[in-house]
Amino acid sequence: MQATLKTLRALMRSPQGAVGTILVTLLLFISVFGPMLAPQDPESFNFGSRFSEPTSQFLFGTDWFGRDLLSRVLVGARSTVLLAILATIIGTASGALIGIFSGFVGGWIDEVIMRTIDAVMAIPGLLLALMILTVLGSSSLNAVIAIGIAFAPGMSRIARSTTLSVRELDYVSAARARGESSLWIIFAEILPNMVAPVIVEATIRVAFAIMTLATLSFLGLGAQPPSSEWGLMIAEAREHMFRSPWPILVPGVAIALVAIAFNLLGDGLRDVLNPHAQE
Amino acid sequence: MTIYYVAKRLIYLIFTALLVSLIVFSVTQLLPANAATMILGEYATDEALAALNNKLGLDDPAPVQYLRWLSNVVQGDFGVSLRTSQPVGPTIMNALGRSAILAVSSLLLVCIIAIPLGVLAASQRGKITDLGVSLVSYIGVSLPEFVLATLLLVWLASPSVGLFPASGYVPFSENFWDALHHIVLPVLTLTIVLTAHISRMIRSEMADTLETDFIRAARLRGLPKRRVLFHHALRNSMLPAITVIALDVGYLIGGVIVVEEVFAFPGVGRQLILAIQNRDLPMIQAGALIMACSYAVANLLADLAYGFLDKRIKY
Prior knowledge:
The complex is a heterodimer of chains A (279) and B (315). Chain A has 279 residues and is mainly α. Chain A is 75% helix and 0% strand. Chain A is elongated, with a radius of gyration of 22 Å. By secondary structure, chain B is mainly α. Helix content of chain B is 76%, strand content 0%. Chain B has 12 helices and no strands. Chains A and B meet through helix 4, helix 5, helix 8 and helix 10 of A and helix 1, helix 6, helix 7, helix 10 and helix 11 of B.
């Protein structure tokens, strides 16, 4: 707890860390309470004011059905930001599990696992996600699983290298000599050492996850209508793009803003948590 | 660099390609409906299905099917598209050529723009130029290709502006200027996104190099600043830059898929998305395999260039 507070204080001292922390906190709040914050019903049509520019009634303008863009973006935050975080958690947890297992067991099993991971990483991320979605079928949740699987190999490499570097240290040998079980060693000695690099990587991955999730929905393989997932909002708005730029601009800026926020927080965390970091 | 090293890397490439082909094949094997069901539709009789399964060899064990598919692929036979009934090989090769135009021209532009930009930012560290470059690249890194592409479309291709065509493709052999006109927006999108990625990396590599004793010594010897920057520092940052650019080919391939879809550009990416939407198995296999192999080849070339440029490494 004390360590967390100390990290947070150090984080708030750097400009990017401070801005990132504040933005991410704000975004998480919006993602959770979005539907309550929305000034209007995101699904209600206002045929009198289609393609409206931003006005006092519609702060960010309206789309081709006259739906309030601000309300749609606020409600869509949940299916974009929270699902992207879920995808990152799936990828991080499974990757960490594979990496710890592989590094801890060692030998030919480690060799086989790592060579397989090399081969999976030889497939560009988006392509891998597309192939997984081919098998699973198109839906928001399947896109989340696909991104999680695509993230796992990179994360498992980080987890494995931490495991390897910790495994040979004296206090782990001491624990082993005391007769502690493997599971105890993993939880008490290896996991705590892994937290910092994994958290930094995961935070930056959230930004990727958001962009990939929106991209998959844009390609028609993620969220399905009438969801107000941001990538899908842009895909649907393309039909009317020359009538009004607002239905594209609003969710587009939202995606970029969220990605920037998580990138800033990740970079800030890296500087704070990595003792070797310069600058 | 020895022939031994090149041979080792080539064998590694073949190994990677084989594993990737195995993954691609297994993924398509996991699909709930096989090719026979897809050809005959869901109301086919069991006898018809069994007959077609037998004819296509789909009731053979999976390893046998994989080896048959692989040996055909090696001979350039990717099978017949379930959607168009045309052979997949020629279709995908034509598409690959068109995608390569996008990828190679973006990559060239990125090298011309991103490397000087990164050097500039690193040499002006902490000053206004550095902050400007960093800010813009931060935004570029956080903007998915499809958002940028769509915004560029709205801005530059709307009927009232009409600077560029909104979609499509014209072969260069047919009409050079028209062809160029059609690739400007897709290439611009890819270039902006990649430049943001790569200039950031170059900046941090350069910043590290400028901190080394070797550069300090060059400065203390009284060498002109420009000479130290370009002759000593940039040379040493070029090696990591090559690795960074090769790794970013992975992003580039993802970007190509998206950009082709946005601008209705008939390359491999669009073929792949179309194939996925129509569950066109042979086309999915061919598209995915070709893209993954291009990435592997890019990494091989980067490794070889690295070995060639860095005289310190003896393989």
